[in-house]
Design a protein that fits this description.
Layout lengths: L1 H21 L7 E4 L7 H7 L9 E10 L3 E6 L11 E5 L4 E6 L6 E4 L3 E10 L13 E4 L7 E5 L8 E6 L4 E5 L5 E3 L4 E4 L7 E14 L12 E4 L7 E6 L3 E2 L17 E8 L4 E7 L2 E8 L4 E5 L2 E2 L12 E2 L3 E16 L6 E5 L9 E3 L8 E5 L3 E6 L8 E5 L4 E4 L17 E4 L4 E5 L23 E2 L13 E7 L4 E4 L4 E10 L5 E10 L3 E8 L4 E4 L5 E5 L6 E2 L4 E10 L7 E12 L5 E12 L6 E7 L4 E3 L5 E10 L5 E10 L3 E8 L4 E4 L5 E5 L6 E2 L4 E10 L7 E13 L4 E12 L10 H27 L1
Parallel strand pairs: 17-22, 35-44, 46-55
Antiparallel strand pairs: 1-6, 2-5, 2-7, 3-4, 3-6, 7-8, 9-14, 10-13, 10-14, 11-12, 11-14, 14-15, 16-24, 18-21, 18-24, 19-20, 19-24, 23-30, 24-25, 26-31, 27-30, 27-32, 28-29, 28-31, 32-33, 34-36, 36-42, 37-40, 37-41, 37-43, 38-42, 39-40, 43-44, 45-47, 47-53, 48-51, 48-52, 48-54, 49-53, 50-51, ...
Length: 779
């Protein structure tokens, strides 16, 4: 009982260990592809808008900010395969790496920790060194490839809405709307022109997607362009906070005067995925709703209007009860479009579901303009402008209040004059954050209109710690005959099963499984798949390795099985647990997975097989008999050990001059009269199949004493018994019983006929005697 309890405890601990191991991920890796090939897809997207210009260029930047110390590598134009590291940099926490070039699309960025990446682009028709224009600049916040999805929708559109999708893996089939599938390889992107709202995008493997919208969105004036990153359906929800208000005034950069239309609107587009979606919009002024939308329906809402603005040496920030909370009874998506009905202010952003929001962020490239924040509950904010670990200032916000955070002021002069790399955090309360244009073109660091365009673009700061990241990970579970530990016996053959599972979210390659059979277990060479090698070591352990015959690529969530047999050696120690250990390793494009380990064990319990037999003749061990007498022999076969006995064989030898009477119970398998007149009787098939410890079985049979059996002699009947068990053989054990024929000393008894014959004989003797006497006398 103690051994069984130990095994149960071992099983429980083993499964708990497996559960804990599966929750421990390998080192986090983040990878990105830069969306938008400047010479192809992105240029085509610009040229297909209403600008009516061809032959221009597309320029841009990619900005990387480290959320912790990381190593970052860049592979240029990685389309269809890994080309090697073209650039490398070590970034400290909050440090920025900004790339300015007209050849960024398709670049592959890899980091061994959390980084934010934003991609800004603009079209121009003059020098390639032009800065972002006020008409056609836009920014996509890029999701790490671990967060890419296979299902997207275009939630917002204008007359010319351009879609660009990009593949993470080779042979990715992408379908846009009702169009034909297009196959893309890793890093390759594709432009789709004039995509209408509600267009569904599906792919056979993960992709990223972004859109460019044209004038007309949010009011529309002139050449307005907004970039929107499309979020995978799996990351959307029903609860959103929006911090970007509408503005009551719009200030020019050179005169401080308002535009003819003073209101700078921030319009929300709320997209419902399913029918009968109820939507509520909560602000400090009350709650609007429910608003019911059908499947793929949209609703437009203008954000509350805030007065004032950042004018030269003016206020450090704008704040107040001008945020909004949009929630629903089903999945929705909320996007914002900022527009002043002029060409100076046109940017867009998406909102993130509240479940993804964090309590701290690092801001990527932000050459001017403020960040907008709003908490999900009352909170204290801290701002570290230069990412030196010390906040420059703090402030408090109530729920449904918002604030702008500017890069500099007369009071807080921190170089450089932008928010790039700044850290913003709270006292533990999650908050929504966007960076983008305000209602002034002359905030610190911003370019004046007279010399170059203002920065009319923005983005959502992604919550990297809440997003899926690329984690190469692997797991292995081992069983023996379907359990973690099994009771076995000598010479038994068991089946080991190895389940190798990709527990990460990247494809694994070069999987190597290394299994070590313990001593006293012999490998049976019938593994599936066939092993690469099986080596018997000096300590009698066996090392078995699989690699070349395993799956070449194991996708996330998939598994592969290995099975093989092993036999318990006859000399394996009993009362001992024999443990079979296995280790697995693999590689991936994002780092190695493993080693991970598991084991399964067999246990030989210390049971002793033993058997006994007792033989009687007519209930005694020895009996006096006479010729022609029939006697009954009884055999009592007993399990005297602690293991169940099987294949019991009883072999009885009747001595010569005793004849077997064919009436045995149970019936014998055979009865053979030998040349020496002994008889061999065997029982097996009709005996008890499994004789448990302490139990017995009986055999009875008769024999007759032959008439010529020797007298004064003991005739001995011998019997032998053998059996097998899971713990070895029992027997042989023997016993005997005997019969004895004694010499006779009895007086004869005369019958009447005998008496008469005797009288006659005596009379004859008398007559003869008298005759002899007369003659003598005559002599």
């Amino acid at each position: 009982m103690e051994n069984k309890t130990t095994i149960l405890i071992t099983l429980l601990v083993t499964f708990l260990c497996i559960a804990s191991f599966s929750s421990v991920a390998s080192a986090q890796v983040q990878t990105y592809y830069v969306l938008g090939d400047e010479a192809n897809s992105l240029l085509n997207a610009y040229e297909n808008t209403s600008y009516g210009s061809t032959g221009g260029w597309v320029n841009g930047t990619v900005s990387i900010v480290a959320w912790k110390p990381v190593n970052v590598t860049i592979d240029k134009d990685e389309i269809g395969g890994y080309n090697g590291v073209d650039d490398f940099k070590v970034l400290s926490m909050g440090e920025i790496w900004t790339l300015d070039t007209s050849d960024l699309g398709g670049d592959y960025i890899r980091a061994n920790g959390s980084i934010s990446v934003v991609r800004t682009a603009w079209w121009f028709d003059a020098s390639p060194n032009d800065l972002p224009g006020k008409f056609v600049a836009g920014t996509w916040e890029l999701y790490p490839t671990g967060a890419w999805g296979t299902n997207y929708v275009v939630p917002i559109a204008t007359v010319n809405t351009e879609l660009i999708v990009q593949a993470k893996e080779d042979n990715t089939d992408v379908t846009v709307g009702a169009g034909p599938a297009v196959t893309l390889n890793r890093g390759e992107d594709k432009h789709f022109a004039d995509v209408p709202v509600k267009t569904k995008i599906t792919a056979t493997k993960p992709i990223q997607a972004g859109i460019l919208t044209n004038k007309g969105l949010g009011g529309g004036y002139g050449w307005d362009t907004r970039f929107f990153t499309l979020t995978p359906r799996s990351l959307l929800g029903n609860d959103y906070y929006i911090p970007v208000p509408s503005f009551a005034q719009n200030y020019t950069s050179d005169e401080g005067m308002q535009h003819p239309d003073p209101v700078v609107k921030t319009n929300l587009t709320i997209y419902a995925f399913n029918a009968s979606t109820g939507i509520w919009i909560e602000t400090a002024g009350g709650t609007l709703g429910p608003i019911t939308l059908g499947a793929d329906g949209t609703y437009e809402y203008q954000m509350p209007v805030i007065s004032g603005g950042y004018i030269n040496e003016g206020d450090l920030w704008l704040n107040g009860s001008f945020a909004a909370h949009v929630y629903a009874n089903d999945t929705i998506w909320v996007l914002g479009s900022a527009d002043d009905t002029d060409d100076d202010y046109d940017w867009g952003f998406q909102s993130l579901n509240a479940s993804l929001l964090m309590d701290y962020y690092y801001i990527p490239w932000s050459p001017a303009n403020p960040a907008y924040v709003t908490p999900v509950a009352d909170a204290t904010f801290y701002v570290d402008l230069d990412a030196d670990g010390t906040e420059e200032y703090s402030f408090t916000l109530d729920r449904l209040n918002m604030s702008t955070i500017y890069p500099n002021s007369t009071k807080y002069k921190v170089a450089p004059l932008n928010l790039t790399g700044a850290e913003i955090w709270t006292d533990g309360v999650p908050f929504a954050i966007q960076w983008g244009q305000d209602n002034n073109e002359d905030t610190p660091g911003e370019r004046a209109v007279n010399t170059s365009a203002d920065n009319d673009f923005g983005y959502t700061v992604l919550p990297l710690q809440k997003l899926p990241t690329l984690v190469p990970d692997i797991g292995i579970v081992k069983f023996v005959d379907g359990v973690k530990s099994k009771m076995v016996v000598h010479n038994q053959t068991v089946t080991f099963t190895l389940n190798v599972t990709n527990t990460g979210n990247v494809t694994l390659r070069e999987i190597v499984v290394n299994d070590t059979l313990p001593a006293k277990l012999t490998f049976v060479n019938n593994a599936i798949p066939v092993q690469d090698s099986a080596t018997l070591n000096a300590d009698r352990t066996t090392t078995i390795i699989w690699q070349t015959n395993l799956t070449a690529e194991l996708g996330p969530g998939n598994y592969t099985l290995i099975t093989f047999n092993a036999t318990i050696d006859p000399d394996a120690e009993i009362g001992v647990t024999h443990t079979n250990k296995v280790t697995v390793n693999a590689t991936s494009d994002y780092g190695d997975a493993g080693p991970k380990n598991d084991s399964a064990s067999v246990y030989l319990e210390g049971k002793v097989p033993d058997i006994g037999i007792v033989k009687f003749v007519d209930g005694v061990k020895s009996k006096m008999v006479v010729h022609n007498q029939t006697v009954t022999f009884t055999l009592n076969v007993m399990n005297t050990g602690s293991a169940t006995l099987r294949e019991i064989v009883v072999n009885d030898t009747l001595p010569a001059k005793l004849t077997f009477v064919n009436s045995a119970i149970p019936v014998q398998d055979s009865a053979t009269l030998n040349a020496d007149r002994t008889t061999t009787i065997i029982w097996q098939t009709n005996l008890t199949a499994g004789l448990e410890p302490g139990n017995y079985t009986l055999i009875t049979f008769n024999a007759t004493i032959d008439p010529d059996a020797e007298i004064d002699v003991t005739h001995t009947n011998k019997v032998t018994v053998n059996a097998t068990s899971d713990y070895g053989d029992a027997g042989p054990k023997s016993d005997s019983a005997s019969v004895y024929l004694e010499r006779s000393h009895k007086v004869p008894v005369l019958t009447p006929f005998g008496i008469a014959a005797l009288i006659g004989l005596l009379s004859l003797v008398a007559v003869l005697s008298m005759s002899k006497g007369v003659r003598k006398k005559r002599v």
